Amino acid sequence: ADGELSRFADLAPEVYVEVALDESLEETLDVLAAHGLGAKVRCGGASVPSESALGGFLRACGEREIAFKATAGLHHAVRDTREHGFLNLLAAVVFGEEEDALAETDPGAFSLDAERFAWRERLAYAGELAHARSERLRSIGSCSFAEPVEELRQLGVLPL
Predict the structure, then answer these.
(1) What pLDDT is attached to residue 75?
(2) Which of 70, 140, 54, 47 is nearest to 103 (CA)?
(3) pTM of structure
């Protein structure tokens, strides 16, 4: 499989490979890093990873300086009983404390505006967020556009 990956690196400026959150994750990410490839993780759908599994993925990508995309199940701004929230994911990437950030269910724990992002008492400013977006969390995916936008409106992030 390692030899097959090398041919994908030149297909586009950025290539992302979906990874399984299993015992081979670190080895898989080492191979992706060696070939300059990004990782793609599924956050929901048929199977929702635990905070521990997703947190381990985030840490492992950070250690290897691998950019990633997160897809599936990110319909909500904040974690609910069944699905991860995209603000939780952003907090986990920006602030660390991955499992705690991913497990947060209080919408009031987050705030976001043009200058800063906050989770509980932690703050990150626009430059830090831009760095996290360019170097780590490249994009999120959801099969719904309306749900995430509506939740951001309810949280006061976007105008009504």
Answers:
(1) 86
(2) 54
(3) 0.90
